[in-house]
Amino acid sequence: MKKIGLIASLIIIIIIGISAFAVWLVINQPQTNGSMVNESPKIIDELDCESYSSENCPSKCIVCPPCLECSSLSCQTEEFCESIGFDKNWYENIKKQNTAMRICQESGGNWLWEHQECEYIGEEFCDQIGGIFLPCESACRHDPDADFCTMQCVPVCKLESKENSIANFEDCINAGNLVMETYPRQCMADGKTFVEEIGNEMGKINLIQIYNPRPNQKISSPLVIEGKARGTWFFEASFPVVLTDWSGLIIAESYAEAKSEWMTEEFVEFRAILEFKKPNTSISNRGSLILQKDNPSGLPEYDDALEIPIFFE
After folding, report:
1. For 235, which DSSP code?
2. According to the model, what pLDDT value does residue 22 have?
3. How far is residue 286 from each of residues 12, 133, 135, measured CA to CA in Å?
4. Interior CA angle at 30 toward 26 and 33, to 5°?
5. What one-character-per-residue DSSP string does 26-41 give?
6. Between these two residues, 27 and 48, which has the higher pLDDT value?
7. Residue 258 forms beta bridges with which residues?
8. d(CA 256, CA 233)
9. What is the rounded distance in angstroms from the CA atom of residue 5 to the CA atom of residue 10?
10. Of 179, 198, 195, nearest to 289 (Cα)?
11. How far apart are CA 134 and CA 128, in angstroms?
């Protein structure tokens, strides 16, 4: 009987112990509401992201500097990167820009980081970097207040979204937009008006006028040039004529000859013939025809010229 009583006592003690342990578990169970549940996954996520390198950053994380002053890169949560001013596309844009710069420089181009564009590369290389090819941009496009700007044609590849690819008159008409038959012609797209480039013809119209070729006309050799100019544009019945390619390289030179008495202030008709070898047009088939005022004095204040854009056939 003593043994039975001892066993019964042990069983009772075990049952009490188990019950006490169960009560302790219930009392100390973690809360399932409030901020702790919400904060724990966030902390874990941050620790997970930071444990990866920037090269192996998983898709749930993004790459950005670990601080505003840092030049290094780290794998972080999107919330952290946005809190210091870097969105989820920042790193991908940087990689795209670095790739574009490398291809630009390897292709012999000039990379302008501030403007995200490459000068002097062809359309094929521009397609490689996902840019927009503009065959004839102004050499002074980033310095509109320049004292002097030539009509040099600069091929440019802009690194930007192709959704905004209409950047000039040619892009506008190629996109099928309405052209207003003014002079110079105008094209409207997305609330913007793009004006056809005709050189400085309008500014020189009271000094010299050209009948052939007209601005933006396609030309081939031999090129017949005809027009009229004030007698003061000539010296000894002639003035220089220059033809350049898109880069400003001179490919032909000659003289226009007056067709009548030139010693007058009235308009005098002229004619010239230019023979030339077609330049390399792999980058651009644009060029410029320049009709220079003859200046025997050599003084720059007496220099003047009519310059119009042309296309090589």
Report:
1. B
2. 58
3. 103, 14, 8
4. 115
5. HHTPPPSSSHHHHHHH
6. 48
7. 270
8. 11
9. 9
10. 198
11. 15
Q: What letter represents residue 302's amino acid?
A: Y
CB contact at 8 A, 210 and 307: no
Longest dimension (CA), the chain: 151
How is residue 304 written in tokens?
Answer: 């003047």
Residue 59's DSSP bridge partners are: none
CA distance 127 to 133: 8
Assigned token pair, 62: 């993004």
Q: Are 31 and 19 in contact (CB under 8 A)?
A: no
Point out which residues pair with 193 in neighbouring strands. Answer: 188
What per-residue confidence (pLDDT) applies to 99? 82
Separation CA 74–CA 90 (nearest Å): 13
CA 33 to chain centre: 52
Q: Domains of the chain (ranges plus CATH)? A: 45-88 (no CATH), 107-165 (no CATH), 172-197 (no CATH), 202-312 (2.60.40.2550)
Give the pTM. 0.55
